[in-house]
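Give me the fold.
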Amino acid sequence: MAVLHQELTLGEAADQLARALPGHRVEILQGRLTATPPPDGSHALSLTKLGRALDRAGIVEAGYEHVQGIGLWLPALPEDFAVPDLSVVDEDFRDAHVKKNYYAPNVFRLVVEVTSSNWSDDLHTKVECYAQAGIPAYLVVDRKHDEVLLYTEPADGKYPPPQRFERGGRVPVPESVGVTAELVVDTLLDG
């Protein structure tokens, strides 16, 4: 019996992988297909508490929304996209739909990643991808190294070195988010 093999595009392979691994986060970063298992409870709780802090700071009244798990189109390569853990976006972000469930980077004010098994992507690859896309602020809750990193103001496709925040400290919400608040490092790290 003959078996026909059809070569898939990277986007088609991502779609197949997402169907085969329900609950996993599938992304294409710098032309590389990745799949991350579902988050643990502390990871999810960190995002919930961050969302509450943004609500208390008046994020909606400022004209923005915080959303979890929406696609961010990365313009460096045609099929690249990321799915940040949490994003602060313009309230009309749905008008910036690019394709599938990905939105243009210009509506993102802040992206947040809480490290898990893919911590290397969060600390390296996504720093490059988000800077190249012009994302004004990238917050990494680095549970692997027990600190929080804040990248802001990309220029020429690169972020300057991050601000680092240790346990016991507070992280100021970047101006690009449109609200004033301080986030407790321990709460971000522990959920």
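The chain is about 25% helix and 30% strand.
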